[in-house]
Each structure stands twice: as C-alpha cells, then as structure tokens.
Amino acid sequence: MKRKLTAAAAAAIFLLSLAGCGNTAGSRALSGGAIGAGGGAILGGATGMGAGTGALIGAGVGAGTGAVTAH
Fold first, then answer.
1. How far apart are the C-alpha atoms of 57 and 45, rounded to whole Å?
2. Which of 7, 17, 43, 47 has the maximal Cβ count within 10 Å?
C-alpha cells in the first residue's frame, strides 16, 4: 500500500508541476485544472478517498496554481 501511495503521490506532483505551462493565465488555469483532476483522481483512488473526490480537489488546486503562475 505504501509503495502504491508513493507512486501515486509522485505522479500527482509531477502532473501538478505542469500547471504553469501556457501563454495566458486562462490557458494555464485550464491546463492546470485538467492536470490536477488527473493527479487528484490517481491520489484519491490510491488513498481510498475516491477518484471523483480526488479529481474535484485536484482540479481546484491545479486551476488555482495555473492561474497564479507566471509564464
């Protein structure tokens, strides 16, 4: 279980780091939300929280991160 959680967390962190990609704040928020939803679904499924809940949380965090990052 610990190995599965570690792999999922590493994948989510990697995906979230891509949230800063884009030319405008809107495009970064959109791509960050999509990437965060994917990472959140992975973490949610691995932790037992549920993939849907994880995707919602990840989308919010990813969109927020993407919107506030500079090009």
1. 13
2. 43
